[in-house]
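Example record

One chain of 309 residues, shown exactly as stored in the release files.
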Amino acid sequence: MTSSDFSLHGAIDLGARRAAAQKQQQRAASGSSGDSGGSPHVIDVTDATFNTEVVERSRSVPVLIDFWADWCEPCKQLGPILEKLAGEAAGSWVLAKVDIDANPALAQQLSRMGVQGIPFVAAVVAGQMLPVLNGAAPESQVRQVLDQLFEALRQQGLLPEGAGPEAAEQPAADPLEIEAEAALQRGDLDAAGAAFGRILETSPNDPFAKSGLALVELQRRTQSYDPATVRKDAAERPGDAAAQAKAADLELVEGRVEEAFDRLIGTVRRTSGDERDTARKHLVALFEVFPPDDPRVGHARRKLASALF
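Predicted structure tokens for this chain:
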């Protein structure tokens, strides 16, 4: 089962941001400050623990493996979606995360399977590994792929009734969130912006809507840019905050998130007065595209504070 590309979100996946926003709301409601790594249904697996944590475990419950790496931007889209779905499944399947850079034996196993890139998701059932998803995909498509997988396993008698992602109660989807996400998927920024705005009218601090509206504004700006001109201007005018801001916008939509943040932090360091303030404000506006607990945002905020003080 292979995912298709989706153009509008590109490097900034709305489904992943919604999953992170929902996790943040759940933690706030429960008073917990833990991250997704604390979920009993999401485990980190190494070369040494693979047989026990994945192969042996798969004889009693299906295990989905998320092969990822820190440098892989699409992995950062797909990972939160899989973690969210594992939480919803409530133990009917387990998500095992494998950092291929830290686990060369498992990385070699991927190569022997003919896998050309990551993210790559496989399912292990009764000790047998099956390919599931190659590449990032929006949440709706990931759900569909997993539904098809578990239904096929049931029909083959490999999965007991009641197992699979639909076994746990699914939270009700907000119709406005669905409308906004669908509008973004088809590239209708006006409709997406209007839907996010209606969410904020009733829930002014909704993290999903605030992030979505920031993404809409980013997309609107970059649609008016000539990329070659933007990059040329940024290279020739390192102290021009407006030129650097446009280049950072392009880097962000291309998935080069850390590069975009570092560009503006560097501008803050080497400028002063109005130019410095312009760079700072634009960087803070770009932070809004992501959930507040995104580790890249936290890291960039600390670097910004160092640059300012």
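Notes: Residues 1-17, 19-37, 166-170 have pLDDT under 50 and may be disordered.
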